[in-house]
Amino acid sequence: MLALLADIATIFIASFVAAFAHMLLLGTPQDLIRLAGVALPTSVVFAAVAKSFNMYQPKALLELHTQFRAVCAIWLGVFGLLVATTFTLQMKGEIPWDFALLFGAVGLTTLIGQRVLLRDALRKGLAERRFSGRKIVLITDEAGRDLVNTLSDLGFFVEKHFTLPLSRSSQRRQEELIEKIIDHTRNTEIREIFFGVSPDHWSRLKRAVAGLRVLPLRVRLVPTGASSDLFYRPSTELGSAHCVELQHVPLSPVKLFAKRTLDICLSVTVLAVLSPLLLIVAIAVKLESRGPVLFKQQRCGFNGRRFTIYKFRTMSVLEDGPTIVQAKAQDTRLTRLGRWLRRTSVDEIPQLLNVLEGSMSVVGPRPHAIAHDNEFDKAIRNYAYRRRVKPGLTGLAQIKGFRGPTPTAASIERRVKQDLRYIDNWSLGLDLVILLQTPIELIRGRNAL
Known about the structure:
Blueprint: H1 2-26, H2 32-36, H3 39-52, H4 58-62, H5 64-88, H6 97-127, E1 135-140, H7 147-153, E2 157-163, H8 171-186, E3 192-196, H9 202-211, E4 218-221, E5 235-238, E6 241-244, H10 253-288, E7 294-300, E8 306-312, H11 336-344, H12 351-357, E9 361-363, H13 370-379, E10 392-394, H14 396-399, H15 409-424, H16 428-444
Parallel strand pairs: 1-2, 1-3, 3-4, 9-10
Antiparallel strand pairs: 5-6, 7-8
Helix pairs in contact: 1-3, 1-6, 3-5, 5-6, 5-10, 5-16, 10-12
C-alpha cells in the first residue's frame, strides 16, 4: 500500500514540476493547479494497472529489472492514452503539448528513481528485520518446504520449521511433534502458527490443529498440492451451503466496460488520424485490379457467433466458404499492392469498423476464416476456448511472433497457447503493453507475407 501511495505522490510531484518548468519556459504566468490536475486521472490509472500486475508485492519490488520494464511499459501506455484522449476530446488548448512532453519525461524519470529507493529501503528493512513484525512457527509436509522462503520474502520471521509426519503409521510421531511444538512455543515470543499442508490430509491436519488449541495463537493454513487450487477460487454463500466457482467469466462487467472504453477511444482516434491514408489506399486498391475495395469474410467471434470482417482487398479472389486456401509466400493470388498491405498490416485497419460495431476488440485472439476454424478445432485441443473473448486486431500471439500463415499443427498450437494465456491473465495494462509492442513487431516483420 505504501508503494502504491508513493507512486501517486510521485506522479503528482512530477506534474507540478512539469507545470512549473512549462511556466518558466514560456515566461508567462500559467494556471499551475489546472495543469497539475492531469496527475489525478494519470496516477489513478497507473496505480490501478500496476496493482493488477502485482507490482507492489515486496518480492516484486526487489526485482529492479522487472520493475523498470513494467514501469516503462505502463507509463508509456498511460501517457499514450492521455495524449489520445486529449486529441479525441479536442483539449489541446487545455493541455499544451510542451507540458505533456515534460510531464511524460519527468514522470517516467521520477518513477524509475523511486523504484531504486524503494528497493534499497526494502532490502535494508528486511536485512534488519524491521518488517518481521511476527515471529511464526511453520509446520509443513514434504511438498511445503519452499514456504520458508515465501513467508520470509513477505516479511515473516520463521523462528522454527517443523515437518509434519502424515502417513497412517505415524500418528504417534505426529502427537509427539505437536507436544514438542507446544513446549517450544510457550518458551518463545511466537505470535502465529502456519501449516503448509495439502488438503488431501485434511483429517490428520484437523487432529494436529486440535492438539494446538491449548495455545492462545492464531493457526493458519497455506494449502499445497493439487487440491490447493480450490482455495484460490471465488466463493459465495447459497443459504447454508458454500458455493465455489469452478469456472469464471474471463472479463467481469467492470473489465468489459474498461476494455470497451479503450476500444471506442482508440478506434475513433486512429480512424480520424489515418483517414487520409485510408482514402489513398482505397483508391489505389480500386485502380490496381478489378473488384471491391473492401474484402468481406465470415469469421467466428465471441461465444461462437459469426460476423463479417472487413479488410482491404489484397487478392484477386474473394474466397469465403467451406474451403479456403491460406495465403503463403509468393502466392500468385496476391496483388502487388496487396503484398505491401499485408506486410505492413495496413489491410487490417478497416477492422476498426468491426471494433466500433462491437464484433471485435482492438486486442484479442486473431479471428480465422470459418473453414480454418473448423479445421483447427479438430486438430488443436482447447482451440474453442479462444472464443471466450472478442477477437482482436492484434494480440499476445502476434507480439510474440506468431502472426501470418499457420501451415502446421505446431504453429497454430503455439498461437493458441498465447491466446489462452492472454485470456487467463487479462488486464488493461496487458492490453496497453500489447498495443505498444505491436508497432515494433510490425517493423520487425516476423512471419509477415
